[in-house]
Amino acid sequence: MRRIFEILGSSLSLTWQEFRSHKVRTLLSLSGVAFGIFCIIGVLATVDSMEYAVQKDIKALGTNTVYIDKWEYADGGNDYPWWKYVKRPFPKQEEMVLLRKKVAAAENIAMNISIGGTTVEIEDNVISGVNYYGVTEDFINIQPVQTAMGRYLQPSDFDFASGSLVMGFLVAENLFGSAEKAVGQTITLRGGKKAVVVGLIKKQGQSIIGGWEYDNSILMPYDFLRTVEREENANPVIMVQGKETVPMAQLKDELEGAMRSIRKLRPTEESDFSLNDIDSFSEFASNIFGNINKGGWAIAALSLIVGMFGVANIMFVTVRERTSQIGLKKAIGAKRRMILTEFLLESAFLCIMGGLLGLSGVFLISFLLEAAFGFSVFISPNILVLAISICVIVGVLAGIIPASIASRMDPVTAIRSK
Predict the structure, then answer these.
(1) CB-CB contact of 384 with 294 (8 Å)
(2) pTM for the complete prediction?
């Protein structure tokens, strides 16, 4: 064990001497390794952080939940048949009530209507770009809403369609100067409707995919929002959350049959509604991020190959420069495997230095991204271990031929080479 540490110390010392003696040459040779590690760790860390944030936002839409809508939540490219969906009838509250009786696999069923980018005012202070959400009683079970102050909507608010609302943090802050002042205030909605703020939604933060954006929204009873805007003009959606033990496929099958029955569609008729599965969005996002990771690995592999040749070149030069030292070591009893190990460790240390340069670049980019866009990039311990492992592997591969040449040298010939 002691001998191993001596070899490690000697290799590290020689690596540092090599760097100090030939800084420019070493840095240029290590640039390939540094860029490769930068690509791998940068892509993995960024993609992992983005995937975590996106998956978190998707889960916020409701786990094990299906959105029944006239629209298909698919890629809105050139082939998107919007002309077919626009003719469909919108979901109705009566259909939600019937679904509760027909779909045994459903745990919670709620309805939501929304108006985006509208106004809220109090006295002379008016703010725009606010989202109105009108929800039914089970909405809170599907889409949890945490209040920082006051209360959430009560059953009596839904029963009597009262003008009570729960306000998002940024709306309250912009309207009253301080969000804490919102609870108890009477505000004016679009069309002159008055409503009382009964609760303040806990600050959520920015969402990557948009989502509910509660910070910039207000929630009110479904029937009250219908007095502000006609239901068909407010994007009505039925939200169905399945029971924990029920597979998503079974839930969708039951909903398909129930909706076709409610709308009295013949077997030959196409469904005039869409069942949008939130879980499928999560799988779709995972596939996209997986492909991005593959692209990052491909770029990094090319850089690491270039870097490996650079390190190998350094090691060939190092072996030539230390030929007499190698001969002297062998003459006083150094074994072949000791010489081999020493040069392999030195090569690995060189690659680790390149990896540290790459990691420094990743940390710098992460800091800039967080400062500029508020997007936090986290580098997990697993990724750091992967980076060090890649450096060691690349170092061993780069140094194996020069180290083998050094270990096979004849001591007499090597000493005389000087």
Answers:
(1) no
(2) 0.65
